[in-house]
Amino acid sequence: MSDTGSGEGGPPRRRTNLGRGLDALFGEDESGYGTLDKVRQTRVLPIELVRPNPKQPRRHFDDVELEEMVASVREQGVLQPILVRPSPVSPDLYEIVAGERRWRAAQRAQLHEVPVVIRELDDAAALQIAIIENIQRQNLTALEEAEGYRRLMQEFGNTQEQIGKVVGKSRSHIANTLRLLELPEPVRTLLDDGKLSAGHGRALLVCADPVAAARETVEKGLNVRQTEALSKKGSGNPKNRATPPPADPTGPTNPTGKDADLLELEQRVSRLLGLKFSVSALGKDSGNVFIHYNSLDQLDELIRRLTQGRPNVAD
């Protein structure tokens, strides 16, 4: 498999970080995801034939940055082709895999055509490339990044280590980013709106009332270190605290006798699995873990997620 060739008369194509990342995630098997590099030559398409991906992992497009790109596109055109695939719903259309911001800028600049590279991709491969490309370009909010990692793990069976190799992040970064998904919805909204940073979010994870602490952080413009201090001592006057979010229905129902760390572990694993998870300590260093399912479909899904993507034990 080679990504260093070029179309007739064109300059050589340099293998990108994304290509190396996909190799790290998928392996270099020519019979598998090697089909990702079956690239047709760059073409120019009418802009109305190119449509956005409805499953695009990126939800937020900064208007200021977009307008800067619009000015550049008006002056120089779209310099980097948009990666597309034939639309799965219409044979005459093409769906964006990577480059939706360029497409939006071209629309605002009132261009009638855009350069594209067309790849034959199934739904899974297209989604993986979209997630990885956005993360590598740092186009996502902290919460979108976390959701991207979760989708790579849940929908495609990738491990945190595999994802780390793809996006050039440490395994601890992947794990800490995923923890942001455990925050209550009001706090996640502040993260998504850019009013809180990922560092603020991680600091709030240990707070007894993260909603109230998050609001105080935003109102007072606290930095991450100040938010950490606030989280450790509580979130101010108890009468001003927000009502705690309802208990997670997948979490433990009888926390009596369990310390805070153990309860947090149960809640975290329950959310990741989508099933009730509980721990029963038998001694200082031993115990039992329980995963509760309500149907055979849930059991099948659990087994699939626990076994998919695992290396061969014999290797």
What does this structure look like?
- This protein is α/β, with parallel strands linked by helices.
- The protein folds into three domains: 17-167, Conserved hypothetical protein from pyrococcus furiosus pfu- 392566-001, ParB domain (Alpha-Beta Complex); 183-240, Arc Repressor Mutant, subunit A (Orthogonal Bundle); 260-307, no CATH class.
- The chain has 13 helices and seven strands.
- It has helices at 17-26, 63-76, 100-108, 123-136, 142-156, 160-167, 171-178, 185-192, 198-204, 210-220, 224-233, 260-273, 296-307; strands at residues 43-46, 50-51, 82-86, 94-98, 113-118, 276-281, 287-292.
- Strand 3 and strand 4 (94-98) form a beta hairpin.
- It starts with 16 loop residues before the first helix and ends in an 8-residue tail after the last helix.
